[in-house]
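Teaching assistant here, posting this on the class forum so everyone can see the example we discussed in section. The complex has three components, and the goal was to see what a joint structure prediction looks like when all of them are supplied at once.
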Amino acid sequence: MSHPLVEAMHVTKEFELGGGAFGRVFARRRRRLLAVDDVSLAIHQGETLGLVGESGSGKSTLARLLLRLIRPTDGGVCFDGQDISGLGERALRPLRRGMQIIFQNPYASLNPRQSVRQILSLPLRLHFKMTERERRDRLDELLRQVGLSPDHAGRYPHQLSGGMRQRVAIARALAVRPEFIICDEPVSALDVSIQAQILALLQRLQQEFHLTYLFISHDLAVVRQLADRIAVMQRGKVVEIGSAEQVIDRPQHPYTQMLLASAPELP
Amino acid sequence: MRELVVVWGQLRRNKAAAVAGVALALLVAAALAAPVLAPHDPLEGDLSVRLAPPVWSGGTWAHPLGCDQHGRDVLSRLLHGARVSIFVGLVVVLASAALGTALGLLAGYYGGWCDRVISWLVDTLLAFPYLVFAIGMMAVLGAGLVNIVATLTLKGWVPFCRVVRGDTLVVRTREHVAAAKALGAGDGYILRREILPSVLPSVLVLATLTVATVIIMEASLSFLGLGVQPPTPTWGGMIAEGRNYILNQWWLSTLPGVAIVAVVMSTNLFGEGLREALDPRLHD
Amino acid sequence: MDALLDVQGLKTHFGSGEHAVRAVDGVDLAVQAGEAMGLVGESGCGKSMFARSLMRLLPPNGRVVAGQARFRGEDLLAKSEAEMCALRGSEIALVLQNPLTSLNPTLRVGVQIGEPLVAHGVARSHRGARGRVLELMRAMHLPSPEEHYRQYPHELSGGMRQRAVIAAALACRPSLLICDEPTTALDVAVQAGILELLREIKDRHGAAILLISHDVAVVNHLCERLAVMYAGRLVETGPTRDVLAAPKHPYTQGLLQCVPRLRTRREMVPISGEVPDPAALPTGCKFHPRCPLVEPRCLDSEPPLAPVGEGRLARCILYEQGRSL
């Protein structure tokens, strides 16, 4: 396609801090937090864009803006050529099928009071008309695709390990057959050996389903494994963007250089 | 539904809650069946057995719990009084919980002016001490069962709203809520299936504590003469009427008190069991 | 020379009877004075419980059921609580993962750094300790110590808080500093600063460091020797450089394969399966369900740690009786 799949154009998000019912009345100078500051970037179909930055850099806020979970204060967000910045929830709903998100904390991203079956049924119910039987079959298929067995369907999140929970989160994102998936620190909370399993799974799924990823992490080495291009964020701004080799081997911006220099390396 | 079966199974395993649940069920059944169960008419007194003691203090089985100063059978009055107390307790708690939870969810989830209006209401109502408020309202509305229920609900929804609002503020930031939103779920679904179930345990705990408060409030109002009017028996009214005889005919005030304690304890234990049964994390 | 810390056969169990959780299941470890030893493992392997066992700070239902931990020749596990109190914070110090929860949010930072000095009688009061506290803060490279002295923990950044925690740990000049994931909760740039600080502490102040981490790269940065822990036991030990260059145990090999490298993009070959549940450990070798080199004998018995090189040990059937890989 000629246009990028996902595009951010001078996107800005400002949060107001301090509050309570009277905060607005009495505070003369409300504290403002510029979480995302005039960010423009484009993600093309089939690629993986890595997004790195430390905590507070605005990466997660940018992710939520791209998914229109929150509204930008300024600027625009486009999905598949369509401007979604100003759309209401009703108009967004059919578009949500195309873009999904996997969160960092596998303990918090699954509803603790729902079984795996219920968690995975939600996307199916929302977007597809299926019979009970079709739904069950699709559920089993999804579980198998992420490396789980169909008998995991009856379990609750607390009965699953971190890696398994993350697989369920991935299955949930896959259920709607999206084109674009944001992976927000998907392996940061996992052990190294499980981390490798999940990264391998994400790679395989990308190839199998022609997915486009925005892969967010504070860990440059992890990003290196999946990303074609890498963008570096600092305090709400994108300070450097380029191909993975460029950014890692020939960093231009001092912040990127500092990040690379600080990361302890293995031979 | 499958979940109810699971919950039922969990409840049966918790001995204390099961016993409490059974006790509660018996109490409610007894209250409902009062007209049939009560050996005597609670309103008609036989002055010849005035102040008769209970059966273990020298009385007869005709009046196992004794009689009051008008010769009315205490057991019959307890059973009929149960109807009022339990009715008021349950209805007020259910109405308060429903109203408070709904408003709390809205205030916590939507924020903005919705939250400001509701919070203002909450703060204003909280400023009134419970009894003062109740007395004032009853004075305006007049005595009677419906008015009691209305008055107590009007104050009772406030703690539910506060608790639910606080919990909603926390739960709505959780990632599974964002995930549902990303999947395209509407606000209704999110409030019903993603937020409400996480908020429910607090509501249950508060509800069981509130049953106690409400029953005691109703008893207090009846004691003060503002509640359901005599001769209809209520536990609070019975305590009030018996207080002059407390030295020698202690059973007149004490037995209704014991009944109140029994109901309150059963509700608390059962409520806690229910809360644990509903939390999938505490299973296996 | 005798090791500063010599642990033999340490076992820590939770609960009792058949379903006891064997969190630490027979660990032998020695740390020399002034050296940095790394203890590497994933979650659930027992490394944190090992540290807490040494300090005798186990959660309520945990008990050390076997073994010795000789510190300067005296068994820590045999000491009374009063004797341990005297040691903690003065001879042996512990730095934990989350500096925000390690510090008391209601007390000023300077007071908390001075606490060990007052508790162990080095200073008579907090006022008397102030000088030494400021000196410590300067040594930890905390900018403007006087200002930070009066501040509360939430007013400091994550990195500064961890420096404050380390300052408190060093106040009485301990000879052994145990750090349990000290940099995991910190940003990568801040992490580098803390690691540099620990290196300085080792070189300049001569403290031995036992660094516990799931991050092999962090351990590589600081420690001369490392030990790899899996399911409550050590599976490999040796000089860090040698172990990382040529790992002997299949778990170590698998682990190093999994760690993504910054400079190269390579095929990551994950270790199949999951870390075993400590309440339901496999029979025989604990790693056998996931081992690519598993043999039938591995299900029956677990081999002891066998020498596999200069100062190196590995627990694998491949190295018994001098077989080599």
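For the discussion questions: The interface with chain C takes residues 54-55, 161, 163-164, 191-197, 199-200, 218-222, 224-225, 244, 248-249, 258-267 of chain A (CB under 8 Å). Chain A has two domains: 6-98+178-262, 114-175. Think about how each of these relates to the inputs above.
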